[in-house]
# Entry
Amino acid sequence: MGYISSLLQNPRATILMILLALPGRMLALSLHEYAHARAAYKCGDNTAAMMGRMTINPLKHIDVLGFLMLYLVGFGWAKPVPVNPRNFKGDFRKCDFVVSIAGITMNLILFLAGGMVMFLWSGLLIKNMVGPEGGEILRQGYWLGADFVGMYNGRLLGYLFEMLSYFVQINIVLAVFNLFPIPPLDGYHVLNDLVLRRNTLFASQRAEQVGYIVMLALLFSGILGEAISFVTQYAYQGLGTVVAAILGM
# Structure
């Protein structure tokens, strides 16, 4: 509900933030689902392709409620890509694992690529301002705010940097969130394929209903947000440390 209170207190800044975050969040969700569809197609299942889901067009993937949740609670979802395991060629469990991990892998790749650009951009500015000693800022997983970037590189590039930062953030959040082994998340399929190895690849409808209740409980208790923040902070620190070494800071 933080965005609602922010909208009431500072509508102009909040609307600008929503607009700047919009492209990256739509792209991250679309590429996540596209990766599922592409992996399923490679494994022999063309169900998603036939339904027009093997595309990065956001209109094919975005779930309105799931997208709104991104702004209300910090994470959300898109329309699940339809998969028919009976079409898989070869080991059906291996194929299910490949399809399930594809979306998470896509988000991690996007996080690493976008994060490297973001930290390099920020690191170069920090180095110019305070010298090599500024490397500690990067190693702690922090980067310059868009306002600082705008001061040194111009307002337009400041907005571009802010869009990049939102894109990086949503990708690592989606990757970590989907790793939770709770049906119907991708993490449940990964757990089932590697550890549980049940005869059925999909959780029952009742299990998915329980999964939603568990996720809501974790959300409102704050556990889910804290767990995601814990992992993402270490991810930022890792990227910052690598960039600091590259820049000799």
Observations:
- Residues 66 and 76 are 5 Å apart (CA to CA).
